[in-house]
Structures are given as C-alpha cells and as structure tokens.
Amino acid sequence: SAPRFNEFVVRAPKNASDLLEKLRTEKDIIGGLALSRYYSDNPKDFLVCVTEMNTKEQIDNLVEGLKEVVK
C-alpha cells in the first residue's frame, strides 16, 4: 500500500495550548499543534497529523490521553 497521511483540526472544549501542554507533561504524548500560534482567534483549535507510521495503539493512546486531560 502507498504511504498515507491525514491532517485534521480538532476543536477542544478548552484552550488548546494548555490542553496540549498538559497532555505532554502528564501523559508524555505530543498531541498536535495549537493553531492559536497562527490564528489567534481560534484558541481552542489544534492540528493533528497521523500517517501509516502511527499504530492503532498510538492513536488510541492519543484519544484516551485527550479524554483524560480534558476533564
């Protein structure tokens, strides 16, 4: 199969920069790029990229980690 990638924007219920920092420090997961860095009017949006190099387990860990740090 050919290499694949997919980038998509997620709108969080909280400030994305804070959420991603918490995800990194508490779960050791780099979860994406806060778009407020480029678009200050969208503080809750962040960009996620997955490729064929990411396993289902890694993606599931990201989802579960996000669920936990959003609480």
Molecular structure report:
- By secondary structure, the protein is of the alpha+beta class.
- The protein has a single domain (5-70), classed as Aspartate Aminotransferase, domain 1, CATH 3.90.1150.10.
- It contains two helices and three strands, in the order βαββα.
- The chain has helices at 16-27, 56-70; strands at residues 5-11, 33-34, 45-51.
- Strands 1-3-2 form a three-stranded antiparallel β-sheet, covered by helices on one side.
- Helix 1 (16-27) packs across helix 2.
- The longest helix has 15 residues, at 56-70.
- The radius of gyration is 12 Å and the shape is globular.
- The model has no long low-confidence stretch (mean pLDDT 93).
Number of domains: 1
Strand content: 15-25%
- Got a strand count? 3
CATH homologous superfamily?
A: Aspartate Aminotransferase, domain 1
Helix content: 25-40%
Distance between the termini: 38 Å
Order of helices and strands: EHEEH
Biggest sheet character: 3 strands, antiparallel
Mean residue pLDDT: 93
What would the principal axes of the Cα set say about the shape? globular
Structural class: alpha+beta
Q: Note the total helix count.
A: 2
Do you know the CATH topology?
Aspartate Aminotransferase, domain 1
